[in-house]
Amino acid sequence: MRIASNTPLRQPPHDYCPAGADRWFQIPDGLDAGKQLFYIDHQTRPDSPDRTVLFVHGNPECSYTYRRCRDALIESGAALRIVIPDHIGFGLSDQADFEMVDVHHAANLAQLIRHLDLQDITLVVHDWGGPIGIGSFAGMMDRVERLVVLNTTVFPMPPDGIRYNNWPARWMPWSVFPRLMPDATWGGVAATVLEDADPQPFIRLAARSARMQWRFVRRAIEPGTAGHVFSEQFRSRANARSSQRNVLQTPCWGHGYRYTDARHGVQDNHAFYATLQQALPANWGPTGRNIPVSGHFGAWDPCAKPSVIQQWRDALPRLDEDLHLYPETGHFVEESKGEAIAASILADRSSEAL
């Protein structure tokens, strides 16, 4: 596979992308104008696809996190067009040159959607991919026909229970990890949290700070594992810092926030969240087109607590038709439940509108 970007991920594994499906998009406008964005564009059958499945990843991931679900869809034989981009600063796309968050990635993704003229879309979103993916459709919500939600939110994170400023441990919450770990080990953090699908070993690891930091360092340099993809993509300080910015903002998830970037000054996404929180139920809920919605949530995670799921149910009641909660699974539900997620994507629920 030809790598047309300056990504630090120079040796992607053979299953990173289906053969012949690697594509590159030069972003025409905005803060990332001129950058090369990598995306997978795979058609499962030579005849016209029935619909398009667009996967939108979060942080600290890349398109590779959807490999199990992607492969299950391909093996199903269904006529699909599968599109999976890597955001700038992730995977095989160009490196970030400022501290990017959801509003910036959504602007880039919107340009790709228009460039490919994607229609009849099943939108699959995880983590920050929720606001990125849904936010990218501002002004063109009619392109999405179905939504699959995986441990994400676009709503203000409720104050009850676990949050990213008290989880996985009150004395070591996820939101402070960027301040604890050197930039050079950030890839090790990504590899560890993504590969440890069972949350219990990770929390035991977090309880032993010295051992945890050594594991992050080791994961930052070791080759030959799936986690190597998630580690190597952050072997540039620019990508690490951009990824860390997302983590620093997790306590404000869904509320909107302001921060100052060294290159572009004050960044503010309050209006971005206000727009998508209004547009989502108005266009996709009962007062709009009432599209089919599926949810797969790893329960050991703030994005899967009952109050967050209730926010989704209030906005999109059809979520109750296909809602799955996995008590022994953590935030990265797509890493262990790819086949179940694929089954939701493939299910014909178009006639089940309430």
From TrEMBL:
Keywords of this entry: Hydrolase
UniProt KW Ribosomal protein keyword: no
GO MF annotations, alphabetized: epoxide hydrolase activity
Superkingdom of origin: Bacteria
Organism: Abyssibacter profundi
Pfam families attached to this UniProt entry: Abhydrolase_1
Residue ranges occupied by any AB hydrolase-1 domain in the UniProt entry: 52-333
UniProt name for this protein: AB hydrolase-1 domain-containing protein
Gene3D superfamilies: alpha/beta hydrolase
UniProt entry tagged with the keyword Repeat: no
